[in-house]
Amino acid sequence: MADQDRGVRTATSGGVRTITFARPERRNGMDLDMFRAYYDALAEADAAPDVRAVVVTGQGGSFCSGATADLLDRLAAGAAGQDLVEELGHPPDLPLRLGTPVIAAVNGGAAGLGLVHALYADVRFMADGARLSTSFSRFGLAAEYGSAWLLPRLVGTANALDLLLSGRAVGADEALRMGLAQHVRPADEVLPAAQAYAGELAAHASPAAMAMIRRQVWSGLETPLEEAVAESVELMTRAFATPDFQEAVRAVRERRAPRFEPR
Hints:
By secondary structure, the chain is an alpha/beta fold. It has 2 domains: 202 residues, 2-enoyl-CoA Hydratase, Chain A, domain 1; 49 residues. It contains 12 helices and 11 strands. The strands form 2 sheets. A 7-stranded mixed sheet has the order 1-2-3-4-6-8-11, sandwiched between helices. Strands 5-7-9-10 form a 4-stranded mixed sheet. Helix 1 links the parallel strand 3 and strand 4. The longest helix has 18 residues. The chain starts with a strand and ends in a 9-residue tail after the last helix.
């Protein structure tokens, strides 16, 4: 599948939907139409019964360089943020609302909005030569699209403030140390490694369980421990009666891979 005219290309194999930012001539810089095309592709993947995991990457040497000059000009001319959100057609935090896990294959540089897209992924694979930057402070901007909420939860308050206040670029080794990336690979191995990881999720993990776990983790960041434990016990009890749990038990007994149904 493809929406090449809007700068996004998609393909599905083995239960994994790969979404590629496909404007390498502008380092995959994103205007509002391309942003919407990406979120459209995420929503379509989440609704597709044959998709168990999503991988997001960039074509060429960049992951996503951020907003295009045209979009920046529009913002400078006084475009209202709420108007932009309405044009986007999706909530800005759409990736966190999905049931399907999202894996970022950060094949090259990511800055500003491009970094935000990587932050909204559940797991990040990063090329050893890539560099990441928030950039917002260097454009006189606030931390966009919830990045000031995300970063402290991913890398801690001090690291988040360092990245957001300075707007400096960090390389793969530093990103790995602070938890901004979970895996570092040579550039030509990043996408295959991310797809292999997503393939493992697609082959061996229950889609319903993954959706439930994502919801537990993200909502749990704002939930007191006692409430989170009580909810987990309730969810666990319900899970015992699900077809997925019964299938997993049968698969263990029969020494085979489980055959989980779509969500």
